[in-house]
Write a structure and sequence with these properties.
With 358 residues, the chain is mainly alpha-helical. It contains 14 helices and 4 strands. The strands form 2 sheets. Strands 1-4 form a two-stranded antiparallel ribbon. The chain has a two-stranded antiparallel sheet with strand order 2-3. The protein is globular. The relative contact order is 0.18. One of its GO terms (molecular function) is transmembrane transporter activity. One of its GO terms (cellular component) is plasma membrane. It is found in: Cell membrane.
Length: 358
């Protein structure tokens, strides 16, 4: 008996120490950031300020990816639909003159309602294509973008009558490319800020994002979270345990879409401007890249991966343009490198974890 215990203990330690279990992606990003920081010659306080801003701006969007991955559906590129829900409601709120913190809260409520409906539809579709969820969510994102563009480029001013003509193009049909979100700009960021030397810390928003981190971690320990985990590990085993896997997967997509819509609301109030036709683009790619940069895979992701990934990914994003300017004499090289980093992260993570895809 003791021999069996020792053998089991040795085997477990061997698995823990197995180098194959170490994800090199965070170390690659840390190395690239260190090199970029050196050549960019940026001040540390500037980089820290920018990283904090991006953490509160993009943190919740990244967290929206956790549940679908745990449920075995891979990266949910359909979080674009959640982002679109937020943008639709914000445009309507500006059109109907819902301003101030009250208007923002009302907009958040309706964004959540819309994202619940759309999240259910996405989950229903994905239950029909088990095993092909990632490519399906990409197509769903494209479809949702096309419908959204049609409504606000051709429908607004024709069958949808605007009240606020300032957001409409001069021809009377279609919403302008840029809509000013002045009534909501930094409406949450400015609630509670403190200065520590040259570093500005938006305490309230940090608490909000960290609260979502805690809620996400707690959710995985609830009964629903356990069902999601079992479903992601083995759907046949989950069914044998009496778990309705279709319902579990739909719930995971609903929660993911809701969190994404809230994340986009926070993102847009931080930016203060809504680029109507492009603000949602790349929200899925950048969020997925940030998560993978933190050491997550498309089969396993935790809150710590999201937090670490946001800091690593966006730190490199901040220093790369100036580093490109100083190394090559051309800032455009740094901008190209940003896109390379985003898509390259996905490719590297998929290659390194190719044995974990199925």
């Amino acid at each position: 008996m003791n021999k069996n215990i020792i053998t089991k203990h040795y085997t477990n330690n061997k698995e823990i120490l197995n180098l194959e279990n170490i994800n090199p992606v965070p170390f690659i990003f840390l190395l690239l950031f260190t090199v970029g920081m050196f050549f960019s010659e940026m001040s540390l306080s500037f980089v820290i300020n920018e990283v904090i801003t991006r953490f509160i701006r993009d943190g919740i969007l990244v967290l929206s990816l956790l549940l679908p991955i745990t449920a075995g559906m891979g990266l949910n590129f359909a979080i674009t639909v959640g982002a679109l829900s937020a943008q639709i409601v914000l445009i309507l709120a500006i059109d109907l003159n819902f301003y101030g913190i009250t208007g923002f809260i009302i907009a958040c409520f309706f964004a959540v309602v819309l994202s619940v409906i759309l999240g259910y539809a996405i989950g229903y579709i994905l239950n029909k294509v088990k095993g092909k969820e990632m490519i399906t969510t990409i197509i769903i994102g494209f479809l949702a973008n096309g419908v959204y563009q049609l409504i606000f480029l051709a429908g607004y001013g024709t069958f949808i009558k605007p009240r606020n003509t300032e957001i409409i193009l001069s021809r009377g049909v279609g919403v302008r490319n840029m809509v000013d979100l002045a009534p909501y700009r930094n409406i949450l960021d400015n609630i509670w800020k403190i200065n520590v030397g040259d570093i500005i810390i938006p305490v309230f928003m940090l608490i909000v994002v960290l609260s979502f981190c805690i809620i996400s971690a707690y959710l995985m320990n609830t009964r629903l979270g356990q069902k999601i985990r079992v479903t992601g590990e083995d759907m046949q085993k989950a069914e044998s345990l009496g778990i309705n896997i279709n319902s579990v997967r739909i719930n995971a997509m609903i929660i993911s879409t809701v969190i994404a819509s809230i994340g986009q609301m926070i993102y847009l109030q931080n930016i203060g401007m809504l680029n109507v036709y492009t603000a949602h683009l790349n929200s899925d790619i950048f969020s997925g890249a940030a998560l993978l940069a933190g050491g997550a895979t498309i089969r396993k992701a935790k809150v710590r991966h999201a937090v670490l990934g946001i800091f690593l990914f966006h730190s490199l994003f901040i220093v790369s343009p100036q580093a490109g300017q100083n190394i090559f004499g051309n800032a455009a090289m740094g901008e190209y490198f940003r896109s390379f980093v985003a898509y390259g992260t996905l490719v590297i993570a998929l290659i390194l974890n190719k044995n974990k895809l199925y």
